[in-house]
Amino acid sequence: xxxxxxxxxxxxxxxxxxTEILVATNILLEKHINGVPVLDDxxxxxxxxxxxxxxxxxxxxxxxxxxxxxNGFIPLTSQKKIEKEVRKIAAITVAQAMTPNPVxxxxxxxxxAVAALxxxxxxxxxxxxxxxxxxxxxxxxxxxxxxxGKTESK
Length: 154
Hints:
With 154 residues, the chain is an alpha+beta fold. 35% of the residues lie in helices and 22% in strands. The chain contains seven helices and seven strands, in the order ααββαββααβαββα. Strand 6 and strand 7 form a beta hairpin. The protein is globular and about 40 Å long.
């Protein structure tokens, strides 16, 4: 049975939380990748930056929807959610746009479990962590490669 270590990309491109958004965007585009792990100065995985985190910058600032009940206003969108959206839209650094504390897999995670995470939770990029250290990354393309019988690690 194939595992994460069999399909992961070992030569992982990473960015730091202080990387400028434009630099990170160029990395994603030039390398044709969907996401990059974000490592702090000590090499700890602190987040992941995906194309979807950057696309959010093209969104309009969410306007809270309100309705009235007994002469009171009730918001349909939480203030916290609005603030999070505004921060992402206005992001200048990776730290402001990344998804913190990303879901990770181990090198022994089965390809079936990886595929289920990607499909069920809409994850496109999963960091592979062993003993607290980033050792690889699995993208949808890595999983698709298994359909073609091409599982050599990069």
